[in-house]
Amino acid sequence: MTEQLDESARRLLDMSNRSKPRPFETGTPLEARIDYNAGCPTVQGTRETVASVEDRQIDGPNGPITLRIYRGIGARLKNGPSLLYFHGGGWVIGNLDSHDEICRWFANLAQCTVVCPDYRLAPEHKFPAGLTDCAATLAFMVDSAADLCIDPRRIAVAGDSAGGNLAAVLALMARSGDAPRLVAQLLIYPNTDAAQTSDSYRRYGEGYGLTTSVMKWFRDHYIRTDADISDWRVSPLRVESVAGVAPAFVITAGYDILADEGMAYAERLQEDGVRVVPRHWPGQIHGFVSMGRYIHVARQAVEEAVEAWRDFEGAPD
């Protein structure tokens, strides 16, 4: 099937193979963070100018949480839409800089305020510490809506990979009344089942960037015990029902070990009567939206997510 791989993705994988990066799972989490932080700027897309960027610290149940707040060009000065964005990185790596370009794209394209928390990472802070930070950030956005110039009734959530997992879980919490209401969830190749048994793990477990071994390494750092794997707050695909959650835009990539579970989650949403816009990029690899320097459809994916979000807001209840 490699002849169907998008040329931009193939070129990026070839570059990675030539550089022979150290696999994350062969070192420590700290070493993985150092390597990841060094590599991010080489593949990220353009960091667009936005109206403003501010780093702020808030109090959370686990201690202080640093947030980065973006105001897009054209964002309203009162009661505007807002997006809570969670960066990817397997719950172990990633930070406010690693997904800065995506947040800027969302801010400008949606003319909104984007809030991105530097949530706690594993293994120093295992599940549910990072999720608790994410929920605390949403509560802050609602409580500080006037100061942020946003409408607390117009908050959407988004994230990629492990961040997509956190976004999906927070949407379920909002559905159940355990978090403030959300108007949309924008899930970019989300991790939805920590059991890691879907067939795409077999098809694309090696040679396409995110590997089976590193995904297990991430998962095992995040969970406390194997019992957490079946907890829907780790594996949202395993929740009893997704009925009543916010409308969803779900991105999947063809050559991604998370492809099957992302599509399965979109199907669950549809089966339970949730409005869903699934978008599959058959020739792309995991992480492509963060690789805008080489993959031209990266920004297009964010454009489509924003378009779906607008449609969700315009639809009658």
Spatial separation of the terminal alpha carbons: 42 Å
Q: Choose one word for the global shape.
A: globular
Proportion of beta-strand residues: 15-25%
CATH architecture: 3-Layer(aba) Sandwich
Mean pLDDT: 96
Biggest beta sheet summary: 8 strands, mixed
How many beta strands in the DSSP annotation?
A: 8
CATH superfamily: Alpha/Beta hydrolase fold, catalytic domain
H/E element string? HHEEEHEHHEHEHHEHEH
Helical coverage, percent range? 25-40%
Spatial order of the strands forming the largest sheet = 1-2-4-3-5-6-7-8
- Count up the domains: 1
Structural class: alpha/beta
Uncertain spans, ≥5 residues at pLDDT below 50? none
Gyration radius from CA atoms, angstroms = 18 Å
Tell me briefly what this model is.
This protein has helices spanning 7-19, 29-43, 100-109, 129-143, 145-148, 162-175, 199-203, 212-222, 259-271, 297-314; strands spanning 52-60, 63-71, 80-86, 113-117, 150-160, 184-188, 248-255, 276-285.
